[in-house]
Write a structure and sequence with these properties.
Layout lengths: L1 H10 L9 H14 L6 H25 L1 H6 L15 H22 L1 H20 L6 H21 L4 H21 L4 H6 L5 H5 L1 H26 L3 H20 L8 H25 L2
């Protein structure tokens, strides 16, 4: 039973939840601390539940829909579905249950979140299909993760606002940029399978330049959020740490050496998200 449970955690790369979760908590804290809305433990737990279930559905669907490609790719052949650890039918059942759990959480948040939940599912599940027809797939992934801060803010307030939207754009461009770097590993495989990505479409050097440009835009959005929100010096410390992490991950990946892509992708971005999220929330606490 424990072994099977660990297979499902591996299927959805549960540890990678750390990428978007801090931004969801930023959106939640923006409403509660910065705008002085009422704090409710129930809503916080439901927001976390939404994040976990939505991401679980999205990752499992990605593995399910790409199982044939994964089986042909040496880098991904050992994943749970192509290796037989989890059957396609079991994975599909997991996707359906996770999606229903996500929608249930949104129902108990407010009706606005509930009515928008099918739209969110279309975006986060639809990403897995985009690599079949557009090199912009990295930004569709970013769009899916970008729902975290605005969704959490919406869960508390029931309305939209500019600041959480800016933070959502931060997530969109940040994710798109680092996913381009991650896709460098499959540049040749994607070409053989007629799959679309920035590296397979434009080549390694240009892909790295595009990723760098996108992350410069991310940095500008982080600055814009601080300026628009009139945040204190604590926020700017977090912003500086986040921008340094963006720079650092690009220093790890070279046109002639992509051996440190996983370090840049998982470790650096996970740390960047946690540090920026924690310091940003601290800035709201000590306003």
């Amino acid at each position: 039973m424990i072994h099977k449970f660990s297979n499902y955690l591996s299927l959805i790369k549960f540890s990678h939840t750390i990428f978007a979760m801090p931004f969801a908590l930023v959106g939640f804290s923006l409403a509660v601390l910065h705008e002085h809305r009422v704090f409710q433990w129930q809503k916080l737990l439901l927001v976390i539940g939404c994040m976990v279930f939505a991401r679980s559905a999205a990752m499992a669907f990605n593995r399910y829909i790409d199982r044939q490609f994964d089986g042909q790719n040496e880098r991904t052949a050992s994943r749970e579905i192509p290796s037989g650890k989890i059957s396609p039918t079991a994975a599909l059942s997991f996707i359906i249950l996770s999606s229903l759990a996500f929608m249930t959480c949104t129902y108990f948040l407010n009706l606005t979140c509930f009515f928008l939940s099918p739209v969110a599912l279309i975006v986060i599940l639809g990403y897995s299909l985009t690599k079949r027809f557009t090199a912009l797939c990295h930004f569709v992934l970013g769009l899916g993760l970008s729902l975290a801060p605005i969704g959490a803010y919406l869960a508390v307030t029931g309305s939209f606002a500019i600041l959480p939207v800016i933070f959502s754009f931060v997530v969109l461009f940040w994710t798109g940029g680092f996913d381009i770097l991650y896709a460098l590993q499959d540049e040749n495989f994607d070409k053989t399978q007629s799959l679309f990505s920035v590296p397979s479409r434009f080549g390694r050097v240009h892909a790295m330049a595009i990723s760098n440009t996108v992350h410069i835009m991310t940095g500008l959005l982080v600055i814009l959020a601080g300026y628009f929100g009139s945040f204190n010096v604590i926020y700017w410390i977090g912003a500086a740490c986040f921008l340094f992490m963006l720079y650092y991950q690009h220093s790890l990946v070279k046109p002639n050496d992509i051996s440190k892509v996983n370090l840049a992708f998982a470790t650096t971005n996970g740390l960047a998200s946690v540090v920026f999220g924690a310091i940003t929330i601290a800035s709201f606490v000590f306003e």
